[in-house]
Amino acid sequence: MSKQNEKSLKEAINQLLKAYGLGPRLDEISLLKSWDEVCGPMIAKHTKDLYFKSGTLYVELDSAPLRQELSFAKSKLIEKLNQSVGKNMVSTLVFK
């Protein structure tokens, strides 16, 4: 086998994900999983639903005061979420 055809496992997996179009979906799953880590256990406990669509992360909370409090920290949360994923995925954060 020649050195030209050799790839690292990471390169091969990334190429496979790209070929099947799975990269964006894995990024989305990674983003949703990072919500608990970024916000902490107390906020995660009050999070009822979480979904991502077209650069917007929708967060459904069961506490109106918490929703109000988090709305003041939107930009900081967006920054931390994007850092945790390693990409600028979230541009808008909507609390329901």
Q: What is the name of the CATH topology?
A: GMP Synthetase, Chain A, domain 3
Q: Please write the string of helix (H) and strand (E) elements.
A: HHHEEHHE
How many whole angstroms does the radius of gyration measure?
Answer: 17 Å
State the CATH class: Alpha Beta
> Largest sheet at a glance?
3 strands, mixed
**Helicity range of the residues?**
55-70%
Number of helices: 5
The amount of beta strand, in percent, is 15-25%
- Name the poorly predicted regions: none
Q: How many structural domains?
A: 1
Number of strands: 3
Which secondary structure elements does this structure contain, and how are they paired or packed?
Elements lengths: L8 H12 L2 H17 L1 H5 L1 E7 L2 E6 L2 H8 L2 H12 L6 E4 L1
Short account of what is shown:
The protein is of the alpha+beta class and 96 residues long. It has a single domain (26-95), classed as GMP Synthetase, Chain A, domain 3 (2-Layer Sandwich).
